[in-house]
Amino acid sequence: MNNIINAAGWTLIHFLWQGALTGLTTALLLGMMRSARPGARYTVACAAMLACLLWPAYEFASALQTSPRALQALLAAPNSEAYAHSELLTGIDNRLPLLVTAWLACVAALALRSAFGLAWIARARRTGGRNEHWQQRLSHLAARLSIRRDVTLRIVETLASPITAGWWRPVVLMPAALVARMPPELLEALLAHELAHVRRHDFLVNLLQNVVEILLFYHPAVWWLSRRIRHERELVADSMAAQLTGEPRRLALALSELEKMQFATQRLALAADGGDLAQRIRHLVLPQQPRGNWKALLAVLGLASACLAGYANARVDTANVPAPRTPAIVDFNSCSKPLWPQQDLKSEHTGTVTLSFNINERGDVAGSRIVKSSGHPGLDQAAQTGIGKCHFKPAKVRGTPVATWQQMQYIWTLE
Known about the structure:
Helix content: 55-70%
Radius of gyration: 33 Å
Distance between the termini: 52 Å
Number of helices: 15
Number of domains: 2
Number of strands: 12
Largest sheet: 4 strands, mixed
Structural class: alpha+beta
Order of helices and strands: HHHHHHEEEHHHHHEHHEEHEEHEEEE
Shape: rod-shaped
């Protein structure tokens, strides 16, 4: 369990720079793809979001495979001061259980919030009103998009914007106010937009986004990537809907009317009011001609390759460095004062002896040796005997007790 907690803790910490690197590379690439098709930008953003999930998963698996025996062997050697880590790293290592506990609490709260959202959608599907006319129009549009699954339409009183949910049994939730007030040709354009999400299986991608947002909620790059994915996804769906209806300006007008309403936010569903509505309207009315920018793409790919190469080299360079450890701590109640040898006491011998002693995983002294003698063998032997009676709280690496060597000085002086 300690290995799992420490592996999870360091994975969360490492993702701070990993997420920043992923976000920066994606921002540069998307910036250079401003004139590309929305589908291309959407693919890049989704790939970056997937990297945000797979990279920490790989880090976590690698941390679990670290052998405690190898770390123990490094620390069990005499003069292991060469492997000592900074107090900062040791402090972080000691607080990893608290960090992981706080992360789990936040993940549980966000997961519960998502569960309530899914429950609300399921309830709206069961209790929402029906409209046979618009159900037939929806089915006709779905057939034109080659959607073989049945798409259900439900009218919801408490909703202000159409949303789409479900994959195997997709459902479109339509606000009652739109059905009553919006002109039929504009409402049909919004239905075409929602069906474009169904055709592209966007609900599954949206669920994956929510999983990443829940697990890596603390990183701003994750939320930025999610916003970009949702924005580009809406542009792609707009293009499909405009092509289906044959009138891009009709969908633009429908979005303009929708912008005047008070929007509802359902993060677990695909809402028609997602993304930047003003930019979506401009994209429909004045579509940009896509231009390739292969030089920029190659430059960003080169940057990403260099970063990954540096990361790989860093893993090799740090492979021989043991993890941060907590030192062994003596239990003074278990120690007894070393007895002064009678011969040395009569001769009034004094001096300082430096001992190096091995503390095993149970906290017992398994052996000792003289690093620097006091000049009197009797005093040296008495110091060794005294330290052998002490009990320690053993040193730990990633929460696991390990054997280690430590040093101490004992000063023999007469008062």
